[in-house]
Write a structure and sequence with these properties.
Bound molecules: NADP nicotinamide-adenine-dinucleotide phosphate
CATH topology: Rossmann fold
Number of helices: 10
Strand content: 5-15%
CATH superfamily: NAD(P)-binding Rossmann-like Domain
Radius of gyration: 19 Å
Order of helices and strands: HEHEHEHEHEHEHHEHH
Distance between the termini: 38 Å
Low-confidence stretches: 1-9, 15-37
Oligomer: single chain
Number of domains: 1
Strand order of the largest sheet: 3-2-1-4-5-6-7
Helix content: 40-55%
Length: 307
Amino acid sequence: MPSAHNEAAKAVKKAATGAGAARATGLAGKATSRLLPGAYFRDRAVLITGASSGIGRDLATTFARMGAHVALIARRKSVLEDLAREIEAAGGTAIAIAADVTRCDEVRKAVERTLAQFNRLDVLINSAGIALPSAVETIPPEDLERMLSVNLMGTLHAMQAVLPSMRAKGAGSIVNIASLAGRRGMPPLGGYCATKFAVVGLTEALRVELYGSGIRVSLVMPGVIDTPMITEASGKDRAKSLPESMPAMPAQWVTWAVIAAVVLGLTEVDVPPGAVVMEKIAALFPSLTDAVLALGTQLFDWMSRQS
Ligand SMILES: NC(=O)c1ccc[n+]([C@@H]2O[C@H](COP(=O)([O-])OP(=O)(O)OC[C@H]3O[C@@H](n4cnc5c(N)ncnc54)[C@H](OP(=O)(O)O)[C@@H]3O)[C@@H](O)[C@H]2O)c1
């Protein structure tokens, strides 16, 4: 329900920021005491894929600030090591593990290393993802395959790798960062939408499979967020890029949504809160939604050309 989401977002925003808590960026050099006010996740182990950038990076710094031991997963090792050092300098605990989520063996090893280091794994957050915008009519099949291998298969690999330890414990949280694009197809993101629809289906089915197991599975569904993914997808080729004038929300909003999902055990949290209502209305009137999206796309394109 939208009101519940709003309340949840407010509650976790308070918990995540805490009195005088460090900002999400630039943690290095901040006093250890700044970690303490929001230490809700003290000593819990959280594994985050896609931690080297954007939403994953913000999640890592925020969970660390709230007392969690964080395992940082992505391909760029030096970026992860810098982030781990930043978190440690602020009094947190982090390990950097270079892994390609499309590689099942690498993901399994990353999970094994996390369990060996922290002796537990409480939360998995799947944030690794790529977006290669293109019209469906002309999308190179290999682009869709690449997106599927990271966005869908990467999520599957990580979920399958953590489930044995969570099953043994009878507890745990899995949060998959899907997208509002996983509920409604729209250009120029047809291929990306398809991968996120698939993530939604996989997540919902797993949630039912795990019913009563003590393991919670949540979806976080962001709209447009200000991260390198969006900057990089707003290129020169209009047929293949997002409109530059598209308004974007800060990554911290997604972090609050993830914390709400974990703390309150919510099945789905949309960013911004209440987007679910629009989504349901749109699903009731598909033809009207098509027309609105088509006009909106043309308007954004026109605005981009003016700027
Ligand atoms: N930004 C938005 O508007 C938006 C909206 C809705 C949903 N989302 C979703 O939110 C998630 C995070 O996106 P973001 O905006 O934070 O993007 P981002 O800044 O581009 O970060 C993407 C992350 O994924 C990692 N990654 C990509 N391919 C990988 C691979 N094969 N193996 C391991 N890690 C890989 C990247 O690290 P390396 O390059 O170091 O591997 C990076 O850390 C994605 O799932 C995205 O689809 C984003």
